[in-house]
Sequence to fold (400 residues):
Amino acid sequence: MASGWAPAFTAVPRTAFLPDLMWPHDASAGRAVAVDKNADPAAWYGYADSDVPIVTQWDDGNHTGTEPGKNFTSSSSMPSVVFSMLADLDVRAGHRVLEIGTGTGWNAGLLAHRVGEENVVSVEVDPAVSEAARAALRRLGYGSLRVITGDGLLGHPPRAPYDRVIATCGLRSGLYPWVEQTAPGGIIVAPWGTYYTYTEATARLVVAEDGRSASGHFTRPVNFMRMRSQRLVRPEHSHYVPAQGTGDAEKSTTTVSEAEFLTGDLGVEAFAVGLQVPDCTHVPDRKQAGRRPVWFYGLTDMSWAVVIFRDGRDTATVYQSGRRRLWDEVEAAFRWWQDQGRPGFHRFGLTVTADRQIPWLDAPANVLETQKTPGEQGFSVVSEGGLEPPRPIKGTSTSS
Ligand SMILES: C[S@@+](CC[C@H](N)C(=O)[O-])C[C@H]1O[C@@H](n2cnc3c(N)ncnc32)[C@H](O)[C@@H]1O
Fold:
């Protein structure tokens, strides 16, 4: 491990932080499966040592029994993702580090080994989760590492300024308090994305010398559980689309093909579209008899659109309704991404200021235009609590 994390990964094992009953992602089953250490220790250690995410809490703790719950709400992230985010963080001995999303406490323990437990503060929103993490850290000898129960979006001002901030839950907005609490030149690493798609990318932001903004490239795609307050309630289809069909929706066609538009779970094209089409989410429907609808729902009004791909046809049918023409916005953003040479995640970046978050391509001056009607707010928080956004139906990749 060129980044110097090997001793920490040896001294602070993941197994010390996992509960007896856990739900690792099983690749062959394509879902989380229950594993009990007492009933099947070999399976438990096998998963604990594998590069898979392991769910440790369902439904904000409102869950009993061994069957997986509805929504995973705390987990131990994939070790490869933990490692790559820590490598992005570029910590040095003695750095003061703020972690958001303590979860099991494993990442906090790794940080403590590297910079000293007195230099790490970790914030976890769920009281039961933070208590379990405190206990695990104590057992490993990190009893004075501060685990704060609270909303990590606020950071933790009493111990600021920090040299490094790392979030292990996904954000849509609200990073500025961390910018304010980080020293100039300090680094913030956080999974960030839009409501358009489940796919996120790790933002690696460097705080400006005047301390009033932070900017940097995305490093790689990730797929984290959202900040509690930034989960998206799945749009209720029947609230948008009339029961009798497409109603008075405007009809048109597009030459965008299903194969180029829906490439998979961690598709950069969906990430790129989401950067330019705020307040919209998309849900690819199941394919039946060679027909695949993809739905688009406005999140701040009741605009909707659907594109219907059919096998063997050169054009797809489009219906659009409401104040916005969501497919037109999405197609323009998608074509733009193609025209730019289909840039990957690492060519995009983000600048965060007190009142804006500004996505860009290649350099901060090359700001992305949003396709949205002028005057509308972008990247709003849609709801408090509620469900995870709809999952893309292709692929199974998860990292948190
Ligand atoms: C993927 S888990 C974190 C994994 C963890 N770093 C570890 O090493 O096990 C994400 C965690 O973020 C927490 N979380 C969600 N919203 C939060 C918020 N607003 N503030 C702090 N923690 C939050 C969740 O409760 C969950 O425990």
Summary: The domain at 237-339 is CATH 3.30.160 (Double Stranded RNA Binding Domain).
